[in-house]
């Protein structure tokens, strides 16, 4: 049975893939709802507009579209960044097929377009979570191997100190003991807290305000803190102290980076919002809290970006490289994740936390 025009129209309306039809001048003569959502424009506004007024890529690609009509050449592009009419950039896959309009019998282009940003973000999150789990297991194994001989070294130094005939030699055994203790503390920090999470009703804004108080007390310079809160975010079950530690680590890193870089008018912005039907790794959550921490510092060096959440990775000469690793681990324990975007003059860390109730 051949489907009617009404059925064909309804099928196009239900597709998740964006469908656009362009005339020979590359003006839009049809777009389905999926294309409206992806290009962030209503069908009424988009019809009659030049395609590249809605989604600009480059002059070269504009020429490729025009050439496709004249040559009948079909092509596909993957993970291409386009700039929308509202200046927002998105990443898409799209296929271009020259066809003949079924009614006017004139040449036109059929464009199938799919957004890639969400899939790329999910893939990136899965890699972050996988790396974090692998690193955690590696660190645990190494930590136990390190702590065992450290205990022996410390005990031997204590026995040696008692057997030495000259008390002035205690200085050397004390150095051994102190350094063994320092390494033990470092290993304990790598392993994280040994205490079970304390689950309680948590107001995320109380957590952030506590962090702001701590930052204002210990900051080394005059850093302006901007708050932009969504008061509608409900309470959720979490370990409040762990969240404070995670957010504090991110904020301290930002403040230290701005001060050490000598940034004029250093600013730290803390913003909260909610996102519905949000996927973290493999799991989809009905509602999550989005906490963004943004600074106007120098940005993260390119050589650190891929391994930023690994322990012992730091862009500061005096940094231990544990702050971000611990923060990611604490947020992961709440089934959340930390992501970041960074360029010179703007770095933003985003925490996504499922809003779970008791």
TrEMBL record:
Coiled coil: none annotated. The keyword Transferase applies. Keywords: ATP-binding, Hydrolase, Kinase, Nitrogen fixation, Nucleotide-binding, Phosphoprotein, Transferase, Two-component regulatory system. One of its GO terms (molecular function) is ATP binding. Residues 141-357 form the Histidine kinase domain. It is an enzyme of class 2 (transferase). It catalyses: ATP + protein L-histidine = ADP + protein N-phospho-L-histidine. SUPFAM superfamilies: ATPase domain of HSP90 chaperone/DNA topoisomerase II/histidine kinase, Homodimeric domain of signal transducing histidine kinase, PYP-like sensor domain (PAS domain). One of its GO terms (biological process) is regulation of DNA-templated transcription. InterPro entries: HATPase_C_sf, HATPase_dom, His_kinase_dom, HisK_dim/P_dom, HisK_dim/P_sf, PAS, PAS-like_dom_sf, PAS_fold. Its EC number is 2.7.13.3. Member of the two-component regulatory system NtrB/NtrC, which controls expression of the nitrogen-regulated (ntr) genes in response to nitrogen limitation. Under conditions of nitrogen limitation, NtrB autophosphorylates and transfers the phosphoryl group to NtrC. In the presence of nitrogen, acts as a phosphatase that dephosphorylates and inactivates NtrC. This is Sensory histidine kinase/phosphatase NtrB. The lineage of its organism: Bacteria, Pseudomonadati, Pseudomonadota, Gammaproteobacteria, Oceanospirillales.
